[in-house]
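@channel sequence for tomorrow's demo:
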Amino acid sequence: MTERDNPGVIMLPPLLYGIAFIVVLALRWFRPLPMFDDAVALWPGIALVILGVGIAIWGRNALKAAGTNLNPSLPTTAIVKSGPFRFSRNPLYLALTLVYLGITLAVNSWWGIVVLIPLLIIMHRGVILREERYLEAKFGESYRQYCSRVRRYI
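C-alpha cells (generated this afternoon):
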C-alpha cells in the first residue's frame, strides 16, 4: 500500500467532463458542426441527461449506504456491490458520460463526440486504471473476485 490512501486520480472526474465540455463549447463557437438540421436531438439529449443523473443518484446512494467515500481523493473503505455497482464497476463514470452525451445532443454539436474520444482515454488511464490498482492493493482477493463477476463498464 502506498503512503496515501487514495487512488491518485489525475483529476476529479466531474471536473474532467466539465473541462471537456467547455472545450466543446469553444470549438462550437469557432466552427459549428451541427449533427442535425434542427433541434431534433433536444429531447433525446434531455432523456440521456435524466438517465445519467438517475444512475448517478442511485450510485451515490449505494456508496453512502456502504459507508464509503464518493470523492476519489479520499480513502475507499468498502467495495460496493449493491445498486448499479452490481452491473458495472464504474456506474458513476457511465452516468457522467450519459450526461455529457445528452448535453452534446441538446447543443447539437459533433464536437462533443470528437472531444469525447480523448476524454474517455484520459478517464480510462488517469482515473479508472488508477482506481483499480488502488482497490486491488487495498482489498486484494475480495476485489479480484468482484472484478471477475462485474464488468468494468457495461
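heads up for whoever presents: Residues 41-149 form one domain.
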